[in-house]
Amino acid sequence: MIGAIIGDIIGSRFEFNNYRKKDFDLFTEDCFVTDDSIMTIAVAKAIMEAAKINESSNSNDYYLLVENMAIKYMQEIGRKYPNCGYGGMFYHWVFSDNPKPYNSFGNGAAMRVSPVGFAAKTESEAIKLSEAVTKVSHNHQEGIKGAEAVVVAVFMAKQGFTKEEIKDRINNNYYRLDFTIDEIRDTYEFNETCQETVPQAIESFLESDSFEDAIRTAISLGGDSDTVAAITGSIAEAYYGVPESMKVKALTYLDENLKQVYYEWLEYFH
Q1: pLDDT for 54
Q2: What is the C-alpha to C-alpha distance for residues 237 and 187, in angstroms, rounded to an integer?
Q3: Is 21 among the domain residues?
Q4: What's 123's domain CATH number?
Q5: What total of structural domains would you count in the chain?
Q6: Which structural domain range is residue 127 located in?
Q7: Is 178 domain-assigned?
Q8: What is the C-alpha separation between 223 and 194, in angstroms, rounded?
Q9: What is the C-alpha radius of gyration for the chain, rounded to an integer number of angstroms?
Q10: Within-domain flag for 20
Q11: pLDDT in tens, 98-120
Q12: pTM, rounded to two decimals
């Protein structure tokens, strides 16, 4: 999930001050962690805790367990960072005593879901897990679709599929990628929906030649820069890996609580 975190941190200072070129400093003192990273970390925690409980209790419904853990940790972790940039409806969900889905198709569904693509052992499991962690808040069909498209792209990239194969899957099952970033850059506007964020983020990855180039391409598009870059970064991590120097730098922006979950996640894969 470090790819999403890096994209979020680098994109944070451009969210409301778009920079439509690729020649910018990656990490500066103006960068910060937003809800994109915090919720990604919460989803990772939910997946790990659900796996532990499932192993010890042999739960009859693993995916329901994942749903419950997603609610638990998005609220538990999320409440520690009330000013990190939540949308209005999601803020109320995080702090609600009885959180219910609210028919959202916001891009929050897609920016937080990358841990699923790394944890799943099969594509079928990836799709089911994606729905489980998404529908607890973003239960609109387009919200579930946006999250699933990201998870499938991450899973395929992790499994060694080519960019052409990933693009074909997205084209055939999710969104028409019938544009280039250069073609839409001048007219692309800030948008918080999955429909107008996920395809652009995936295309940014597809046009890149390295992890860093993917992040730079995503941010150069403009729009909701931290979220576009977080989504792009999650797929780029699975495809390219992440330079160690970028990992080290990004972790300096996380507090000890968030870093602890990140290191737990690394252990989870060993």
Answers
A1: 87
A2: 28
A3: no
A4: 1.10.4080.10
A5: 1
A6: 2-11+30-257
A7: yes
A8: 13
A9: 17
A10: no
A11: 999 999 999 999 999 999 999 99
A12: 0.97
